[in-house]
From TrEMBL:
Cellular component GO terms, alphabetical: cytosolic large ribosomal subunit
Protein's job: Component of the large ribosomal subunit. The ribosome is a large ribonucleoprotein complex responsible for the synthesis of proteins in the cell.
Keyword Lyase: no
Species of origin: Stegastes partitus
Residues annotated as transmembrane: none
Official protein name in the record: Ribosomal protein L15
Coiled-coil segments: none
Family per record: Belongs to the eukaryotic ribosomal protein eL15 family.
Pfam hit, one: Ribosomal_L15e
SUPFAM superfamilies: Ribosomal proteins S24e, L23 and L15e (SSF54189)
Assembly and interaction partners: Component of the large ribosomal subunit.
Length: 60
């Protein structure tokens, strides 16, 4: 199973321990930021790649 397939399965099973941990960490990080913040990269890379997202060289 590839990495993107693994992420897709994790997203589907929201009650899994790994997904709950990731969501908790992500919520904590978002609360530490200012009110308006643009994400530097997609939070769901598997879905972003399916929709045509490609990382640009030199941007972060």
């Amino acid at each position: 199973m590839g990495a993107y397939r693994y992420m897709q399965e994790l997203w589907r099973k929201k009650q899994s321990d790994v997904m709950r941990f990731l969501l908790r960490v992500r919520c904590w990080q978002y609360r530490q930021l200012s009110n308006l913040h643009r994400a530097p990269r997609p939070t769901r890379p598997d879905k972003a790649r399916r929709l045509g997202y490609k990382a640009k060289q030199g941007e972060y």
